[in-house]
Amino acid sequence: MSYRFAVIDIETTGLSPNEGDRITEIGIAMLEGGKIVDQFETLVNPNIPIPQLIQGMTGITDEMVNDAPHSDIALKEAFEFIGNAPLVAHNASFERRFLNSEIQILDKDNQVSPICTVLLSRRIYLNTKSHSLENIINHLDLPKLESHRALPDAIMTANLLARIINDIVNMSKINRELDGNDLYRLSKAPLKRFKEMSPSEALEKTLKGKSNANYIASKFNFTSPTVRLTNNQTISRHDNKKSMRDSQNNYTINIQEKSKNRAQSMQEICTQNEEDNKYI
């Protein structure tokens, strides 16, 4: 039996959904048996201007998203495509925060917690200095595609996941297909274990030992009334938060001040500051 993994990447208007940033593109590569068997992509209308800085980085312009589906429709289509497949992302905390921010508008009883390929990479490729998608792709000599667009990044991450799974099987004595629970447990296992043990010992201890870390697939109900944010509207989720920017210029300046090292912060946000420190 070959397990499916839905490898997702998103593009956004900025770094923080708590400050009103929103999704502009979703890309998903479905991985099965080490191969990409299906793909999904859609632009998303964020209902706010895309800063010039972000437009220059991603190539996604306001004109491109004007006629794109809003997040309620885009997410419904995306999760219909995903089905019950475990969700995987590179720097998963970034995707998790934005996806859950949008999901909460539509289905307050649910959220996602993608498996993080950065955390997996840090445990399997200990001698690699940087685990950013670009660097780890280059290090492993995997196919490189156009970056900062959702589907190409999702495809590169899917290829990385296939390589990680293959290397885990070769390093360990586990003679079976790896599923979402296996990968989730590995991503949450203490990094110290992998530094102090041999790869096979660390993998065997993690995969055969007891653990409370299990991947839980989400089942969504997107039948609630459509709720869309506009430049002049907020909903309860944004009460007492900073309101949407009055102009694209001011918004761009704000993003520029916070994003001088945007690439680095996005690459490390899931590893050092949020996820990984809990498990060292």
Describe the structure using short key phrases.
13 helices; 5-stranded mixed beta sheet; disordered C terminus; 280 residues; globular; 12% strand; alpha/beta
Q: What this model shows, in words?
A:
The protein has 13 helices and five strands. It has helices spanning about 50-60, 60-65, 70-80, 90-105, 115-125, 135-140, 150-170, 180-190, 190-195, 200-210, 250-260, 260-270, 270-275; strands at about 5-10, 25-30, 35-45, 85-90, 115. Strands 3-2-1-4-5 form a five-stranded mixed beta sheet, with helices on both faces. Helix 5 runs parallel beside helix 7. The chain starts with a strand and ends in a 5-residue tail after the last helix. About 40% of the residues are buried. Mean pLDDT is about 80; it is low at about 225-280.
Quick description:
With 280 residues, the protein is an alpha/beta fold. Helix content is 44%, strand content 12%.
Number of helices: 13
The termini sit apart by 33 Å
Query: What gross morphology would you assign?
Result: globular
Q: Briefly note the structural class of the backbone.
A: alpha/beta
Helix content: 40-55%
Residue share in β-strands: 5-15%
